[in-house]
C-alpha cells in the first residue's frame, strides 16, 4: 500500500512538472513586427498586381486587417516615438528624425515589464539621437532588456548591431531581415520554455531604400518591363519609379519570407495561440505618385500615410480574415495592445484603446484619425506644415493657409481628383473641418507655424540639409537634441 502511494505521488509530481514546463503564461505574449517604408497597398492581400507576399497574404487570412491604418506623422522617428509612448508628436516634441526620446517618457517596454514581461528588441531603433551607428546604451533603451539592435542603418547586406551590454559593434552575417528572423527564432524558442510572458519587437528596416541592395534572387522576380505602375505616377517619373520598384518589391518579397519564418516558429513551438502578433510599418513611400520624387514620405497622400496593420490575437476565432475600415492611428496601438492583454492603460497615453473593435471587428464602424506634420524636413522642408483627418472614406488636409486637399478614397483610390472647395461637397468639407478641429482640440494643438514648435522644444535644424545634424557624430562632434519633457 505504501509503495502504491509513493507511485501515485510520483505520477502526480511528474504531471505537475510537465504542466509547469509547457504551461502558457497567464498574459499573452506580444510579437510586434515593424517594417520600414512599407506602404499598405504594396501587398498581395491589398490588391497590388505586382508584389509577391505569400506569407503575409496567409497571415491576413488569420488576422484582423485594419485597411485604413495611418502613420500619425509619416516618417521614422516620429512614428516610433508615438508607437512607444501612445502620445502625439505635438505632446512629445518628437516630430523630426534623429531626436532623442526623453527618458522621462513612459514607454511600451517599461509598461509591460511592470506587468512581469520579458522584453526584447531587434533591428532599427531610431529614437536615441546620439548618432546613427553609436551604441544605444542600456540606460537609453526605454525598458527593453534583451537587445540586438542599432540606432539606424540601411546597409542590409552588412548590417551592424549591438548585443545586450556588449559595447562592441557587430554585423549580421547575411541579409539583415533573414538574419534577424533567424536569431529571433532562437529567442522565441527559449521563451517558449519560460513561465513569464514576453514582448518582442522586430524592427526590420526593409523595404526602405536603397532598393538596389535587395538580393538578386528576389530582384529577378520583378523584370522592369512587367511592373505595372499606378495611374497617379506621371510620365516624368515613370523610369525612375520602375527602377526603384524593382528593388522595393524585391525587398518586400524577401522580407515576407523572413516574416513567414517568424510566424512558422511561433506555430512550431506552440505559442501562436497565446500571442498577439502585429505586422505593420512606420510609414509608406510615394514612389513618384502625384509627381513627387521616389523615396518621399512625410506628406499626406495615402502612399505615405496609409500603412499595413494586421493583428492576430488569442481566441481570435471567427474574426480571422475580418477587415476593419475605421482607421487606427499610431498612438492607438499601445493602448490597444494593453487592452488586449488586460493591462491598465496609464494616464499619460493619448491614443484610443481599440481592442474591442479588434475583438469584434465590424467594417461598418466609422472612425477618424489625425495625421500631421509639424515641420517637414530634409528635401521636404519646402512643403507646408499640415494637419489632416483620415476617415473610413475621406482624406481632408489643411495647411496654415486653409483647406488644401480633400479626396474621396472610395471613388478615387489613387487620390487624383482634389475636391477641396468644390461647391457640391461644401457640407462634407465643413463636417471634415469640424472633425479635424475636434481632434486637434482633444490634444491641445492650435496648429502653429513650424518655428513655434522648433522654439518650444528648443530644436535646431542644420541649415545645409534642413534636418537634425546626425552626421557630425561620425567625427565626434555631434550634439544630442531632445525635446524637454513636458
TrEMBL record:
InterPro entries: Alkaline_phosphatase_core_sf (IPR017850), Sulfatase (IPR050738), Sulfatase_N (IPR000917). CDD domains: sulfatase_like. Residues 1-23 form the signal peptide. Coiled coil: none annotated. Belongs to the sulfatase family. SUPFAM superfamilies: Alkaline phosphatase-like. It comes from the Bacteria. One of its GO terms (molecular function) is arylsulfatase activity. Residues 28-343 form the Sulfatase N-terminal domain. This is Sulfatase. Keywords: Hydrolase, Signal. Gene3D superfamilies: 3.30.1120.10, Alkaline Phosphatase, subunit A.
Amino acid at each position: 500500500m505504501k509503495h502504491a502511494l509513493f507511485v501515485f505521488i510520483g505520477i502526480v509530481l511528474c504531471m505537475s512538472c510537465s504542466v509547469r514546463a509547457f504551461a502558457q503564461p497567464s498574459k499573452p505574449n506580444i510579437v510586434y513586427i515593424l517594417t520600414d517604408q512599407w506602404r499598405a497597398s504594396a501587398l498581395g492581400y491589398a490588391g497590388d498586381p505586382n508584389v509577391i507576399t505569400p506569407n503575409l497574404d496567409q497571415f491576413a487570412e488569420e488576422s484582423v486587417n485594419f485597411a485604413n491604418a495611418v502613420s500619425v506623422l509619416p516618417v521614422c522617428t516620429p512614428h516610433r516615438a508615438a508607437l512607444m509612448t501612445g502620445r502625439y508628436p505635438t505632446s512629445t516634441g518628437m516630430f523630426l528624425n534623429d531626436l532623442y526620446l526623453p527618458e522621462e517618457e513612459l514607454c511600451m517596454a517599461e509598461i509591460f515589464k511592470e506587468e512581469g514581461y520579458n522584453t526584447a528588441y531587434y533591428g532599427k531603433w531610431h529614437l536615441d539621437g546620439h548618432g546613427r551607428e553609436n551604441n544605444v546604451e542600456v540606460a537609453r533603451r526605454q525598458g527593453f532588456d534583451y537587445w540586438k539592435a542599432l540606432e539606424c542603418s540601411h546597409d542590409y547586406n552588412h548590417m551592424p548591431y549591438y548585443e545586450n551590454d556588449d559595447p562592441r559593434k557587430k554585423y549580421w552575417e547575411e541579409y539583415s531581415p533573414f538574419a534577424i528572423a533567424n536569431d529571433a527564432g532562437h529567442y522565441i524558442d527559449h521563451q517558449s520554455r519560460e513561465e513569464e510572458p514576453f514582448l518582442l519587437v522586430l524592427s526590420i528596416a526593409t523595404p526602405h531604400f536603397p532598393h538596389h541592395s535587395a538580393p538578386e534572387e528576389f530582384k529577378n522576380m520583378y523584370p522592369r518591363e512587367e511592373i505595372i505602375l499606378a495611374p497617379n505616377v506621371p510620365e516624368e517619373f515613370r523610369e525612375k519609379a520602375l527602377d526603384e520598384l524593382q528593388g522595393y518589391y524585391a525587398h518586400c518579397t524577401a522580407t515576407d519570407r523572413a516574416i513567414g519564418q517568424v510566424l512558422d516558429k511561433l506555430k512550431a513551438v506552440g505559442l501562436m495561440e497565446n500571442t498577439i502578433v502585429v505586422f505593420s510599418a512606420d510609414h509608406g513611400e510615394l514612389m513618384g505618385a502625384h509627381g513627387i520624387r521616389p523615396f518621399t514620405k512625410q506628406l499626406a497622400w495615402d502612399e505615405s500615410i496609409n500603412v499595413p496593420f494586421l493583428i492576430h490575437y488569442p481566441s481570435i476565432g471567427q474574426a480571422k480574415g475580418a477587415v476593419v475600415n475605421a482607421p487606427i492611428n499610431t498612438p492607438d496601438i499601445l493602448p490597444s495592445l494593453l487592452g488586449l492583454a488586460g493591462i491598465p492603460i496609464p494616464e499619460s497615453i493619448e491614443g484610443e484603446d481599440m481592442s474591442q473593435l479588434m475583438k469584434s471587428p465590424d467594417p461598418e464602424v466609422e472612425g477618424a484619425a489625425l495625421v500631421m506634420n509639424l515641420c517637414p524636413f530634409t528635401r521636404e522642408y519646402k512643403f507646408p506644415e499640415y494637419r489632416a483627418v483620415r476617415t473610413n472614406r475621406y482624406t481632408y488636409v489643411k495647411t496654415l493657409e486653409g483647406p488644401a486637399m480633400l479626396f474621396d478614397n472610395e471613388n478615387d483610390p489613387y487620390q487624383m481628383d482634389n475636391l477641396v472647395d468644390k461647391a457640391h461637397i461644401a457640407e462634407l468639407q465643413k463636417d471634415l473641418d469640424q472633425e479635424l478641429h475636434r481632434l486637434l482640440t482633444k490634444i491641445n494643438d492650435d496648429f502653429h507655424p513650424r518655428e513655434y514648435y522648433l522654439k518650444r522644444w528648443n530644436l535646431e535644424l542644420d541649415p545645409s540639409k534642413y534636418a537634425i545634424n546626425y552626421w557630425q557624430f561620425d567625427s565626434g562632434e555631434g550634439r544630442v537634441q531632445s525635446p524637454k519633457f513636458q
